[in-house]
Structures are given as C-alpha cells and as structure tokens.
Amino acid sequence: MQGNHGGNINKVAREYGHKPESIIDFSANINFLGPAEFIKEEIQNNISWIKNYPEPQGQGLKTLIASEYDLSKNQIILGNGAVELLYKLTEVLKPKRVMIVDPTFSEYELASRAAGAEILNFKLSSREEFNLTREKLNQLINSFSNIDMLFLCNPNNPTGKLLSQQQINEILSEAVSENVFLVIDEAFIDFLQNKEDYTAIEQLNNNNKLFILRSLTKIYAIPGLRLGFALTNSNLVKKIEDSRDPWSINYFAQLACKQIFTEIAIRDQYLNETLSKLTKEKGYLYQHLNKIDKFKVYQPVANYIFIDLSNASFSSTELTDCLAEKAVMIRNCNTYNGLDDNYIRVAVKSREDNQLLIKTLKSCIRNLK
Questions:
Q1: Where do the structural domains in the chain lie, given as residue ranges?
Q2: Cis peptide before 103 (omega within 30 of 0)
Q3: In a designed cystine with 331, which of 25, 202, 282, 345 is the match (CB 3.0 to 4.6 A)?
Q4: Of 315, 272, 307, which Cα lies nearest the Cα of 289?
C-alpha cells in the first residue's frame, strides 16, 4: 500500500511536459479562494524573523485554540500537518489491532502499520453508496471486542459521506465500553455550513480515549505550511510532545495559527465568504457533472465531489491520464482500499476553473469512446 495523494503538481508537470503554473489542480481539496490575506500579510511583514527558532511545539498557541473550543490548553497539540500527529499517535500508543473503515484516507493505515499494528479493513459497499447503514453500524460495533483502535473520517475522504451525531455518539459509547481508542479525523469539517452538528468535540471531556484531528491547511489554503492540531486528553498530549522534535511546527505555520485564532472577525469574514462561494460553485459543478452520461455523481457535502465511472466505457486511469495531458489534474481513486479503477474525486474550484473542468472532461470522454 502506498500513500498516494492529490496535489503533486510537479510530478504531473514532469510526466506530461507541462509548466507547473499551467496546470489546474482539481486533485487536492483546497479552498479555491486561496490563502487568506490576513495570513499572507502577517508572514510577509515578519519575514526577517526566520533568523530565530520557532517556539517549541507552538506552546503559546495552545491557549488560543483552547479558548476557541472551550477546552484546557493541555488538551491541545499542534502538528506539522494533521498527518504528523497520526504517526506520532500510533507510535506512542502502539495499537495491536486497528480497524479502518474503507474507503478512506490511506495514512490511517500507513501510520498504524508503521507502528506495527495489524490492520482490519471494514469495507463499506458501493451497493449502499458507501453509507454506514444500520446493519453496517451494528457489524462495526460488534467488531470492537477484537480491536484497540478505530479510525473514522467525518466527512469522509474521498466519498464525502457524513456520520450523524447520533452515529458518532453510539460508536463512542460502545468504544468506551470495549476499551477502544477512537480517532476521528475532522479535516474537512470546516467546509460544512452546520459543522457543530457533526463534530465530536463536546465529547472530549467525557472520554479519555478520543482523539480529534483538525486541519488548518485545507480551509485556509496553506498546505505548503503544514499546519494541523489535535484535541485529546492531557496525558496523551504530554506523551506525544515528549516523543518528538520540539520544532516540528515552523515559524510561518505558527504565525498563521496565531492569526487564525486572534483575528476572529477577519477570519470569520473569510470563512463566511468561503462557504457562500463554495455553496454556489458546489451546486454548479454537481449539476453539470450530473449531466454527463454514465457518471454517477455523489451529492457533495464538503469541497470535493466523488464520482463513480462504473457504467462508463473508460477507466478512472484512462480519464485521469487524458485530463493530465490537457493540464488538468483530478484524483484517481484507484489507490484507495475498497475502490477500483472506476472512481474519481474532483475538488470544487472557481466558476472559471469549474467550467474548464467540464469542458475538458467532455473532450476527453469523446476521445475515449
């Protein structure tokens, strides 16, 4: 299993003979508004501070984040992206048997394998549109006696499926009774209009076997900075902090984090603009993708759209390759566990870019028939 991901523009540029700046990237699910100005300006105004070390482990930022979520600062840990925290979590806890609900983000399995864990893949079905049905939920819960860690992604990447608060609470309750450590990745939750209805944060103070991951790079369009955080119990935070590089969060990432959690009014204006424009473009792109013959387009909830090509006369690899030749990148989902060469994922971008995607898709489909 390989950790294949979207957003590798330089690789596509080399393989297809493009200039990186000419490529339109729909393979990475990043806010199409681009980096927020209040973050860019702070970095530009403080460029000379790179002569100094960043604060170890971003300690000064924890109070800001804790205040946002009504938690103790000792329950917060920052990471060089959320993925770093996945690897540190499994390294510290050393789970023996881990369950992954597939299809989902590959790094859960890779981080668990790196820590020596046995992986149990719980596969959701295309026949049920990858929903965690009542029957599937019962099967999942019944397996808790055989595992010591479970990974969930909400909303899920790549399918965009959401777990309800009722489902989360039921899973949490059963996990506690079976001594299962639960990791919930909420990396895309900021793209939801009603994220408070789906987050598990309110359960943190009642559960010391819960680890909630959040990404700041996607919603604020700063993936190059690598910035994420996790919310969990204070003992686990200390164990992870004691086991890692004290300077894993670089100075500019810390500056971005400070701006996000202090410039609240400006931040909220940026987030409101994001959700307003995303709602329009998501609807536009979904509607036009739905009109393409043989496409089964899943209703999007975040900033990406999952598509089943099973009824088409071409594979996801053929379509991805054709688009790449035309300098358009999409995510071929054939590397996800539980998926094959029949699924793709596309990010929602600006109207101009979305129109280009539709036009290029139709051109490729004509060529592939």
A1: 9-30+266-368, 37-262
A2: yes
A3: 345
A4: 307
In tens, the pLDDT along 80-92 reads: 999 999 999 999 9
pLDDT at 3: 60
At the topology level, CATH places domain 9-30+266-368 in: Aspartate Aminotransferase, domain 1 (3.90.1150)
Euclidean distance between CA atoms 180 and 107, whole angstroms = 19
Q: Does domain 37-262 have CATH number 3.40.640.10?
A: yes
Residue 241 burial class via C-beta count within 10 angstroms: exposed 0-12, middle 13-18, buried 19 and up: middle
Spell out the residues 6+ positions from residue 80 whose beta carbon is closer than 8 angstroms to its own. 226, 227, 228, 248, 249, 250, 253
pLDDT of residue 132: 96
pLDDT, residue 2, reads 53
Residues 106, 4: Cα–Cα separation, whole Å = 8
Whole-number Cα distances in Å, 44 to 41, 252, 256, 260 = 5, 10, 11, 16
Phi, psi angles (nearest 5°) of residue 249 = -100, 110
pTM value is 0.96
Compute the average pLDDT of residues 157-172. Answer: 96
Q: Which two tokens stand for residue 167?
A: 């489902």
